[in-house]
């Protein structure tokens, strides 16, 4: 089997590398010459994802994975072409911007000279697959092809494992021929008995949005329960465990925090809200989730200020973690983007440390002092705030933390420490939804 993967962003590069690991010949194609040169000549991975560099290196060496800027070359002999280009939120109306997807479809049509399965891997609104088919037919009436939707369910930071050992694979493919090609591509997953669901195109497209918005709703639910816990003296950690052990609810995605961020949940919740409104079937739950989450990110700075006595003018706050979650350098829609500037506006000086995100963060913040390490960050600060649950922040030497901070004050927006332990250690400690 041979495929072309259009787009060497996060999804394209991870999917391409993983398919090649499955034994498929993969040619990744991108218009960005520098990116392709870097990948081809120096094995330079443009994103941070644990394990991806090794996977790319070994499959490139084995001759199964290659990179080009020439789509024609990439498509020569390909059984399938995956479209994995960006679908950012369109400015102004929140709809997904599909211009990259449709441009890719037009170019694919030009180079099609045998039966080809055209797969949308990018997260695309319901109806995009049909439009891709229409565009290809219009551009090349003689083309022999099927359009398939194959959404990804990869989490940044664990994307390779998510691809190799998924809970399920969803494939919107409506012809036997297309299904057969997809079955071949995912042959390895059949061997480990992964559920593989074949559906209609629109259904597959909607599954992706329904999955992400459901997870965003689950997080938002527990975040609101956390707020209630603080008022009534309950513990959100125990509530999450208590409800999550019910198999119908499940334990995952019930960690209260500063609000969800990242490149997917904020964008996808908004896009589904717009689609539903356009079709006259508004999703009021998701509309509410979007607004609660936006407010929550803003409210977190207030929580910090209140805990520090209501006035942070002239105080130095040490912030650990800037990315939207650990094991990534991704800052997109990170809660820190709301919290850090709000603390600055309130008069605080911010010192920050993030293991991977500081380069990206520097593009967003002004007047933040970046530290060399977690301990360097907190030296002489009035308080410590944990914004992202990187593993290295879970195991801080608390005696050292106490000696470095001006006063032992820790605001833990990810609940990575235990309130009782913190009290025993002599900290003034503020978790989320737990007794402090
Ligand atoms: C998410 C989905 O989990 C993937 O299945 C999906 O493929 C991906 O979007 C996508 O559409 O491409 P990702 O954005 O990488 O993956 O990150 P998550 O681990 O889902 O976290 C998203 C946000 O929710 C983060 O800000 C995280 O801190 C927050 N979160 C997550 C919580 O606040 N509590 C939780 O219990 C879980």
UniProtKB/TrEMBL annotation:
Residues 318-419 form the UDP-glucose/GDP-mannose dehydrogenase C-terminal domain. Coiled coil: none annotated. Pfam families: UDPG_MGDP_dh, UDPG_MGDP_dh_C, UDPG_MGDP_dh_N. Keywords: NAD, Oxidoreductase. Its EC number is 1.1.1.22. Pathway: Nucleotide-sugar biosynthesis; UDP-alpha-D-glucuronate biosynthesis; UDP-alpha-D-glucuronate from UDP-alpha-D-glucose: step 1/1. SUPFAM superfamilies: 6-phosphogluconate dehydrogenase C-terminal domain-like, NAD(P)-binding Rossmann-fold domains, UDP-glucose/GDP-mannose dehydrogenase C-terminal domain. GO terms for molecular function: NAD binding; UDP-glucose 6-dehydrogenase activity. NAD(+) binds at residues 30, 35, 87, 123, 156, 267, 332. The keyword tRNA processing does not apply. GO terms for biological process: polysaccharide biosynthetic process; UDP-glucuronate biosynthetic process. The active site is at 264 (nucleophile). It is an enzyme of class 1 (oxidoreductase). Belongs to the UDP-glucose/GDP-mannose dehydrogenase family. This is UDP-glucose 6-dehydrogenase. The lineage of its organism: Bacteria, Pseudomonadati, Pseudomonadota, Alphaproteobacteria, Rhodospirillales.
């Amino acid at each position: 089997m041979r495929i072309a993967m259009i787009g060497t962003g996060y999804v394209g590069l991870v999917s391409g590398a993983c398919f090649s690991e499955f034994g498929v010949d993969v040619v990744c194609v991108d218009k960005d010459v520098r990116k392709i040169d870097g990948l081809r000549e120096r094995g330079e991975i443009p994103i941070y994802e644990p394990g991806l560099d090794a996977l790319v290196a070994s499959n490139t060496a084995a001759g199964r994975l290659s990179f080009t800027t020439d789509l024609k070359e990439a498509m020569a002999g390909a059984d399938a072409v995956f479209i994995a280009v960006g679908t950012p939120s369109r400015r102004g109306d929140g709809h997904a911007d599909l211009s990259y997807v449709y441009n890719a479809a037009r170019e694919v049509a030009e180079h099609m000279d045998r039966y080809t399965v055209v797969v949308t891997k990018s997260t695309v609104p319901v109806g995009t697959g049909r439009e891709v088919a229409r565009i290809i037919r219009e551009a090349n009436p003689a083309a022999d092809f099927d359009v398939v939707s194959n959404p990804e369910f990869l989490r940044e930071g664990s994307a390779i494992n998510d691809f190799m050992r998924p809970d399920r694979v969803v494939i919107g493919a409506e012809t036997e021929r297309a299904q057969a090609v997809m079955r071949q591509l995912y042959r390895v997953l059949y061997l480990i008995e992964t559920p593989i669901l074949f559906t209609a195109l629109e259904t597959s497209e909607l599954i992706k949005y329904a999955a992400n918005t459901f997870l965003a709703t689950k997080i938002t639910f527990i975040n609101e329960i956390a707020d209630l816990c603080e008022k009534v003296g309950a513990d959100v950690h125990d509530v999450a465990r208590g409800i999550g052990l019910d198999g119908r609810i499940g334990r995952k995605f019930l960690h209260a925090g500063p609000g969800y961020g990242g490149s997917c949940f904020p964008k996808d919740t908004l896009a589904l809200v717009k689609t539903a409104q356009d079709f006259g079937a508004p999703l009021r739950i998701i509309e509410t989730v979007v607004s609660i989450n936006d407010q929550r990110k803003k409210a977190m700075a207030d929580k910090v200020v209140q805990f520090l006595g209501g006035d942070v003018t002239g105080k130095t706050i040490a912030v650990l973690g800037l990315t939207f979650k650990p094991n990534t350098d991704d800052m997109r829609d990170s809660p820190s983007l709301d919290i850090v500037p709000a603390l600055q506006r309130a008069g605080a000086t911010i010192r920050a440390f993030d293991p991977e995100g500081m380069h990206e963060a520097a593009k967003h913040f002004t007047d933040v002092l970046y530290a060399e390490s977690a301990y360097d960050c907190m030296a002489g600060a009035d308080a410590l705030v944990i914004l992202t649950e990187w593993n290295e922040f879970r195991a801080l030497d608390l005696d050292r933390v106490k000696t470095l901070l001006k006063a032992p004050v820790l605001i833990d927006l990810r609940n990575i420490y235990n309130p009782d332990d913190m009290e025993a250690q002599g900290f003034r400690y503020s978790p989320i939804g737990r007794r402090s």
